[in-house]
Amino acid sequence: MIPSANPAGLAPARERLKKMPTNPEFSLYKNILEQAPDAILYADREGIIRLWNRGAELIFGYSAQEAIGQSLDLIIPERLRGRHWEGYFRVMDTGASRYGTELLSVPALPRDGRQLSCAFSIVMIKNDQGKPLGVASIMRDTTPAFEREKALKKQVAELEAQIAARKSCQSP
After folding, report:
1. Who has greater pLDDT, 7 or 27?
2. How many domains does the chain have?
């Protein structure tokens, strides 16, 4: 279920970033986060979006103001939500996920309703005691590459079928 509004007192992440102290290192991190073409988002233990960068806006079509405070269901296709939440809460309970080092490819749902193919990795955010606070995710829209690969696989299958048909015609 997607909450309908931001929780009271939750300022959009960009506004909070603008108010933070400035130093050269912080400015570097802030610029990378804000200007990255990849979606960079953070969701808390409950799966509520708390950070949404410009790349996420471009990929998914929701502004930070619209996305922050919403459930991750905002971008998860309905048919995959049960499996997603099972894994998400397991990671929140255990603090372990292989997707910190492995790239995961999944379907995603942008505002316009078409299906995207996204590749992503996660960064587990933990408190000083090692308890998971949430997950940051770096996501890239890989739909064009996925579609090309799908088309190539179809062509290969068709060619293999043609070769098999010719071989069967040539057999005595």
Report:
1. 27
2. 2
